[in-house]
Amino acid sequence: MTQGFFDDGSLIAVLTAQPLDRALDYRAPPGGCHLGAYVEVPLGPRRVLGVVWGPGEGGYDLAKVRPVTRVLDVAPMRDEMRAFLMRAADYTLTPLPAMLRLATRAPGLGGSEAMRKVYRLGAGAPDRMTDARGRVLAVLNDYGGLAFTLGELSAQASVSTSVIKGLVKQGAVLEEDAPRDAPFARMDADLPGKELTGDQIGAAAHLRAAVAGGGYGATLLKGVTGSGKTEVYLEAVAECLARGRQALVLLPEIALTAEFLTRVEQRFGARPAEWHSGVTMTERRRAWKMVGQGGAQMVVGARSALFLPFRDLGLIVVDEEHDSAYKQEDGAHYNARDMAVLRASLCSAQVVLASATPSLESWANAEAGKYARLDLSARFGAADLPEMRAIDMRAEDLLANRWISPTLRAAVAARLAAGEQAMLFLNRRGYAPVTICRACGHQIGCDQCDARMVEHRFLKQLVCHQCGETRPIPQTCPSCGVAGRLAPVGPGVERLAEEVTALFPDARVAVLSSDLFASARALKEQIGVIAAGGADIIIGTQLVAKGHNFPLLTLVGVIDADLGLQGSDLRAAERTFQLMRQVAGRAGRADRPGQALLQSFQPDHPVIRAILSGDEEGFWRAEAAERRAAGVPPYGRMAGIVLSGPDLKAVFDIGTRLARGDAALRAIGAQVFGPAPAPVARIRGRHRVRLLVKADKAAPLQAALRDWVAQLRLPANMRLQIDIDPQSFY
Ligand code: ADP
Ligand code: ZN
């Protein structure tokens, strides 16, 4: 064997994405294979995808070892990527095959190259020239030799496809089969960006120099919404591309990508590769392959883009780094922000964490000097941060089942009169969070979960937000059978829309809530319509807090600023602070000053006061001091363990046994809390019991956790899930 190559017939270990606890041994195929090669191997009666992970282990009947079926025609996995998957698996206590699954989520990788028809200029002359034919030939001439698909060409030349087919018959246009997975259009890093101003200049220079240095480094880029963070990190992207390395920009939400892609295209003259759930399977496979071969210079994507097989990744930007969407909470539990830092450190890349309201984790890392910190203080152009005020709901006259105070109502009316937009924010989907029977007091709950059913009037259904279970809205109480006494309690965005329509009958009202849109495309369209002035009042959930640009919007009213402060979540204060500031940041982006009004029953609450005063550093210092005193993240370490199963007592017994056998944890000074019913004690018919482990920041928590749970033999119907650095407690 030469370095990293296995000769024909040698024993190799192949890791597959199948739920096995280790790599399996195979024989290298004729012609041999590289370490990291993607291969197809027989597994029982099936053939599965795998990666050559190292030399085989042997130690059993070698005659039974089967050969690799074939080596796939894709670039082998790089050492850096294997190291990343192993480190990420170790950190998150995720089995390696599950990590590999994240890294191979492109369809048909093993399939033979799918071909498609493309069209380019031919040598023949058409028998007769028409306007339409002339346009086709002109387009092909203009693009000198470039191939088009039929759809692209007919759109570009504004002709029907039959015109093109006619030209093919006469040899004036050539029809060819070409591989589908073509490289992405070249992006030009030398095109000029916008002229930077003020803080932007220094920040961009810092990032450019960091990228040019070629090593690992992390930077927190902080600035209010509209201060030009995107403009600044695109400079880092430019530097990265100019050096021939690849750049990855992660966005928390795919509805944000359309606007962003347009911006990137304007900046670099071509569109980057996209990677998220809204991309077609063919395009996913193309992106995956081109990233590996270097045919994609830049990727814009959701958190899973972090697991693409980059050939030479030089920069990762995590935009809106505080966003909880970066935490994946099913399957492998990982936080893409943390994994981005890990990946960057392994491949000598720069990582930029951008946010107007950073997570306390990143703030603390910057304080400790682990990350550089760049601040953009002013908003670009004339736009100022909105004026923020609380509306003291204790002093407002409100009728029952109304949520818009007279003060807020007057403010909205004033904006409408001025021809501006107003937004009302309420982080609750549906019509009403609770449906109660006025005869017996029964609240309609989900049969499968310990959760209330939420009325969605638009869908004409009750929906469980835990498991997705739906059922028609009943006429009679399922508990006492009395008819006509079921009543909605509390507001959701749909109910708020009803109130708004009654108060402002002439206003055009748009509701932005993820459940009201059939597709990401429909949502994007609606966002575009609103941005262009197609609505007067926007009612939105959390969805609207995430960076959409509504230039006409000058007033944001928060219906219930206290909502996030309830509950025992360790991040409740941080979340509320971030969300309120993000939402408020929507107002007054262009040349019109904005205002944010927060309806609150506790305007003197320290978090509300911090939001209003704008003393961010003060808020963070206070929050940091509290967490430090309590020894919780980011100053201590935590892991959440959820045990679940159909039988409550059995689940509790296992939890108790686990809690008692905590020698491995005690050895590192960690404490175990629980077992206790999880905040959502039943989901999909499975009872959930949780334990919480707390340890010092320096303690080797993962190793101890591994030893601790290894002693358990779980019955087949029970599951154990470990969440390192849990974000939410449910
Ligand atoms: P952020 O990412 O911090 O929200 P953006 O980079 O999106 O801010 O900037 C907000 C708006 O201001 C965008 O429309 C952007 O194009 C514009 N902008 C920012 N900086 C400049 C600049 N130096 N020159 C021209 N336009 C700018
Ligand atoms: Zn349910």
Describe the structure.
This protein is α/β, with parallel strands linked by helices. About 30% of the residues lie in helices and about 25% in strands. The chain is built from 20 helices and 33 strands. The strands form nine sheets. It has a seven-stranded parallel sheet with strand order 12-13-11-14-17-10-18, sandwiched between helices. The protein has a six-stranded parallel sheet with strand order 19-29-28-20-27-26, with helices on both faces. It has a five-stranded antiparallel sheet with strand order 3-2-6-5-7. α3 crosses α4, α6 runs parallel beside α7 and α15 packs parallel to α16 (about 605-615). About 45% of the residues are buried. The model has no long low-confidence stretch (mean pLDDT about 90). Zinc ion binds next to loops. Adenosine-5'-diphosphate (ADP) binds next to α7.
Keywords:
single chain; 730 residues; alpha/beta; 7-stranded parallel β-sheet; globular; binds adenosine-5'-diphosphate; binds zinc ion
Q: Give the overall shape.
A: globular
Bound molecules: adenosine-5'-diphosphate, zinc ion
Q: Mind describing the biggest β-sheet?
A: 7 strands, parallel
* Terminal-residue CA separation: 51 Å
Number of strands: 33
Number of helices: 20
* Broad structural category: alpha/beta
Spans of at least 5 consecutive residues with low confidence:
none
Radius of gyration: 29 Å
Strand fraction equals 15-25%
- Strand order in space, largest sheet: 12-13-11-14-17-10-18
Q: What is the compact description of this entry?
A:
Helices cover 30% and strands 24% of the residues. The chain has 730 residues and is an alpha/beta fold.
